[in-house]
Amino acid sequence: MVLSINKSYKPEIAAPAGNPEKLEIAVKYGADAVYFGGKKFNLRSGSGNFSADEIDKGLQTCKKAGVKTIFLMNSFLHEKDINKVKDYIKQIKDYKFSAIMISDPGMLLLLKESGIKTDLHLSTQMSTLNHLSVKFWTDAGIKRIVLARETTLDEIKSIREHTDAEIEIFCHGALCISYSGRCLLSRFLSGRDANQGSCTHPCRWNYALIEEKREGNHLEIIEHATGTEILSSKDLNLIDVLPYYIAAGVNAFKIEGRMKSIYYTANTTRIYKHAMNTITDNNDYIKYLPFYLSELDLVSHRPYTNDLFNEFNNLGFNKIPYIKKVLFLGYALSRGKDETEAYIKIFNPVYLNEELDVIYPIKNTEIKDCKTTIKEITDDDKKESVNMARPGKIYLVKFDKAIDSDAILRRRLPDK
Ligand code: SF4
C-alpha cells in the first residue's frame, strides 16, 4: 500500500453517543468527537438522547477530555414543527457545543435567525455527492459536510481538489438500502418515519413473494440457505481501506450507531482511533490490521462491506443474517478495595467461576485485553455472595487478576 499521507494531518473519529453513559464510554475509549441529540429534532428518537442536565454534564466531560461535541438537530421539519423548533433553539442556544448538525435548510435558517454562533455541520441526509453541492452549503454557512454514504472514493478525491471545506464520511455501521435515510418504507409499513428519526428498519425484515391467486402461500425467494432479505444491505466497515480515505483528504470519520450498545461504542471507537494513529504516526497499521479486523468482527453486525461501488473489486453476495460472536456483559464503574475487585454494572447475566474477555481503551501501543475468571460476586445492596450477577444492577466482582476501572466484560458465544 503506497499512499501519500501527510503525517501532521490527523482526521477525527466521531463516535456515537446515544445516551450519557455511551458518551462517557466513547470519551474513555478514545473518541475525538462525540455526536448526540437532545430530546427533540434529531434522527434517533428511539435512542435515550439527552435532557438539559445531561447535556450540561456531557459538555463538561468532553471539555475536560478535549473531546468535541456535535449536537444533532438533523430531522426534517414539517410545517407544524417550525414554531416548536424556534422554542427549542431558545433552550439550546447558550450551550457551548463544538458544532450543531442539521439537515433541513429550514433548520439552518432558523438557527441563523437566532444569532447562534456555533459551527454548523451538514448531515449525510442531504446526500451531498459533489463539490458544487459542497460549495453551495459552505456559501450558506456550513463548516463541515458529512458526505452521502454513496460518495465514491474518486468523488471524495475530486471534492477535496475543489474545496477546502471540512468533509466527513461514515466509516462504520449500518447502511440504508436507499439514499441514506431518504426512504418511506418505515413510514409506509409501520407508521414510523425514518426522516423523523423513527425508522423501524423494514428493509431488513424478511420478505416472501405471494402469487395473487394463492393468498397465504408465501414463496421463498432463495438468495441463501437461511433466508431472504431482498432489500437488506450489509454493514459498512472501512477499516482495511481507511488509508485510502485518509489520503483522499477526509477530515473526520463517523461511526454509525447511537442505538447500539455501550460495548459497540467502546470497541469500534478504540479500534478506529488506534488505526488512525497507526496510519498517520507510524507504519504499524498493517501489523495491527488483523487485530482490528478480528475486534470489529466481535461487535454485532451484518456481513461487512468496504466496497459499496466495487471500487476495491470486492463485491459479491454472502449471507445477510446478523452476526453476533460475543455478548456484552457489563463495564467497570470503579475499583473495589483491591486491584482484583471492581464494581461492575451488569447488562447480561455473569456467573461465578466463568472465564470472560476483558477489553480496555488502547493507550499508545499497549493492548491490555485479556481473559479473566470470576472468583466472587457480591450483591452490593444485600452485601451477600451470589452465584450470578443479574442485569440492571451493580455488583462487586472479584477477578483472578487485576482489573482496571475502564474495563468492559464480554463473553464469547459458541459458533452457530
Ligand atoms: S427502512 Fe432501511 S433504507 Fe429505509 S431509512 Fe430505514 S434503514 Fe434506511
Explain this structure.
The chain has about 425 residues and is an alpha/beta fold. The protein has 10 helices and 21 strands. The protein has helices at about 20-30, 50-65, 80-90, 105-115, 130-140, 155-160, 185-190, 240-245, 260-280, 285-295, and strands at about 10-15, 35, 70-75, 100, 120, 145, 165-175, 210, 220, 235, 250-255, 305, 325-335, 340-345, 350, 355-360, 370-380, 385, 390, 395-400, 410. The strands form 4 sheets. Strands 1-2-3-4-5-6-7-11 form an 8-stranded parallel β-barrel, surrounded by 5 helices. Strand 13 and strand 14 form a beta hairpin. Helix 1 (about 20-30) packs parallel to helix 2, helix 3 (about 80-90) packs across helix 4 and helix 9 (about 260-280) packs antiparallel against helix 10 (about 285-295). The chain is globular and about 60 Å long. The two termini are about 35 Å apart. About 40% of the residues are buried. Iron/sulfur cluster binds near residues 176, 183 and 194.
